[in-house]
Design brief:
Radius of gyration: 19 Å
CATH class: Mainly Alpha
Oligomer: single chain
CATH topology: ABC transporter involved in vitamin B12 uptake, BtuC
Helix content: over 70%
Strand content: under 5%
CATH architecture: Orthogonal Bundle
């Protein structure tokens, strides 16, 4: 019998995957793999803010993640530090401040383990509807601004030639990432969000020849990782968040092996 909690987990995970795949592609194209960690680590500080202001945790995480994103843009624009240095500073600072804020909180509502590693099996129907609402909004903005975001990804010079607002596209991309982190926190947890961004996109990159195809394949691989992870979690009584990432890792290794086999077979047929 298919339990209701599994249905909620599957629906919320699918909603997350539909946006994490395409956004992960942009992160790979821009070589900002560490950026996901920076935003994810800020989620703990967002939870503490939400408890302090007595607002929804998703909104608190979104606000803090957006602030971190804008701070990243400002620091990169100053050209005082390289992008990886800025990301490292923001990532570790946000995580430390978040852990301190959570430890100082007297609220019994915080479960640090679930925040760090996620608990998709505990999502409510309200979480599911929120996930689908945020997903629909992010997908709408992605489709609407696809050309601008592609130009932003390629280079600021191309964006300038195309008369596309480079900084506006960068801010939009950061805000979309913040929204994704906010809904992903309960599913994969703070420490694993960036893995769900990178792994499906990396798999899609192996087999895709165009940005659009890569985005679609990444979304599908994200859904496959959610399903595979949930099955692993149930079958072997494993934590759900790490199981999802483990499934994505298995798919990535399998994709690498398959691509090598195809390459070898092609060389044999066309000596």
């Amino acid at each position: 019998m298919f339990e209701e909690f599994m249905l909620r987990a599957l629906l919320s995970g699918t909603a997350l995957s539909l946006v994490s795949g395409p956004i992960g592609c942009f992160i790979l194209w821009k070589r900002l793999a560490y950026f996901g960690d920076s935003l994810a680590h800020s989620a703990l500080l967002g939870v503490a803010l939400a408890l302090f202001l007595q607002i929804d945790a998703i909104f608190g995480v979104f606000v803090i993640a957006t602030c971190v994103s804008l701070l990243l843009i400002a620091l990169r624009s100053s050209r005082m530090f390289s992008s990886d240095a800025v990301l490292g500073i923001l990532s570790h600072s946000a995580l430390a401040l978040g852990l301190i804020a959570v430890s100082l909180s007297n609220s019994g509502k915080i479960h640090l383990t679930s925040l760090l590693f996620g608990d998709i099996l505990a999502v409510s129907w309200n979480d599911v509807w929120v996930s689908f609402g945020v997903t629909a909004l992010i997908l709408f903005l992605l489709v609407l601004q696809w050309r601008q975001l592609i130009a932003y990804t390629l280079s600021s010079e191309i964006a300038s030639v195309e008369r596309i607002g480079f900084w506006g596209s960068e801010v939009l991309f950061m805000v979309l990432c913040s929204g994704l982190v906010a809904i992903a926190m309960k599913i994969t947890g703070v420490l694993l969000i960036s893995a769900l961004l990178i792994l499906p996109a990396a798999i899609a990159r192996i087999f895709s020849r165009s940005p659009e195809v890569m985005a679609v394949v990444a979304a599908l691989m994200g859904v496959a990782s959610i399903i595979g992870g949930l099955l692993l979690s149930l079958e072997f009584d494993l934590p759900s968040g790490p199981s999802i990432i483990a499934a994505a890792t298995i798919f990535f290794v399998a994709a690498l092996i398959l691509s090598r086999v195809v390459l070898v077979l092609t060389d044999i047929r066309n000596p």
